[in-house]
Amino acid sequence: MSKIGNKPIKILAEVKIEIKDLGSSGQEILVTGPKGTLTQVVKPGITIKQENDNLIVVAKNSALSAMQGLYRSLIFNMVYGVTTGWNKGLELKGVGFRAQVSADILILTIGFSHTVEFPIPKGINITVTENKINVTGIGKQEVGEVAAKIRSLRPPEPYKGKGIRYIGEIVRKKAGKQAVKIGGAA
Q1: Which residue, 21, 62, 102, 138, has most beta carbons within 10 Å?
Q2: pTM for the whole thing?
Q3: What is the pLDDT of residues 40-79, one digit of tens each?
Q4: Euclidean distance between CA atoms 150 and 40, whole angstroms
């Protein structure tokens, strides 16, 4: 049995849960909270039950227990997203690297001969303070995906560490040609 899937999900007072039966297609769960609404379709064989202020995810058989844990995590992420919201931080490292938000476009100056314009998707909020980019939204997957796309515009390089990185990310630096010539690194 799934250890994560067996844990009940605590539903707060401001969150409204609606479970629709789709017949042979499974179930659809609709989570509404102060920040917005999210939906998730659950495959057949996994059932979601609401008991008092808890949601319980149940698998029909042991073969579906991995899916039980997956759907429990997805639903928990939805509940957390509509109440608190998700947040991912990025930082710019490099001389002259800057970012600014103009209307619904993130404008990046990241060492190219031109500025890079990144359109901000609907449902995602991006703020810039100093050289830090903060990506927020209610969907965990969407927030992570947008942050990864921004990072992929100029990932940190291993020699000087310049580029866009997650806050707290450690970039392992390599020794350059001179250090190898002298005998610093083999």
Answers
A1: 138
A2: 0.86
A3: 999 998 999 999 889 999 988 888 888 899 999 999 999 9
A4: 26
